[in-house]
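Input record (one chain):
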Amino acid sequence: MGFKVAVIYFSRRGRLVTMANVIAEGARSVEGAEVTTYRVRDPVNGDVPDQYDEGVLDAPVITPATVQEADCIIIGAPGRQGAICAECKYFLDSLAEHQTAGCLLKGKVASAFTSVGGVGHGFGGHEAILQSYHSTFFQHGMIPVGVPPSPVMEDAVLASPFGVCLSGKARTDQSGARLRSLSESEVKLAYSQGEWAAQVAKQLHDSGETES
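The corresponding structure, as predicted from the sequence alone:
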């Protein structure tokens, strides 16, 4: 029987969505993984198309109920001044109902990714941001998973075992349009993170089925 993986993002720009999709592909490489990519909806402004790159709003909106149904969640959003952005933090706070109703997310695998840099977002602090996600996971009794250390980390500017991170502003083509491409190292680490999180979730899921 399969297990469910929810890859969740909040972003207005396509590059972080590209990273979420690479993470999802890594998770899909694990046998039995049923992977769906979701987005966090802006709780204040909602969906204003001209504020988002093309395709960012195509994914279904995540809900606390969907998180409860998943065996593994991998969530990410841009950092803001060294902290989780407000839109994603609002969603994470909405999961408190699962905590007070009996720790309903206990035992689920959880992982995080982020990006730093850019006008108004501040610089650095990516490990503090990723640890903030992990702190939320611990509050729910979830099992945090990061990126397996590998030689690829030597070539990635902001490589960290806590989770993958995009650095700097997006490159542009000759017309000035933003490119959604990632560096080779970012792709490898993102894929590895999705694969590893799904592998851990599969082991726990299969173990639970054996015991039952």
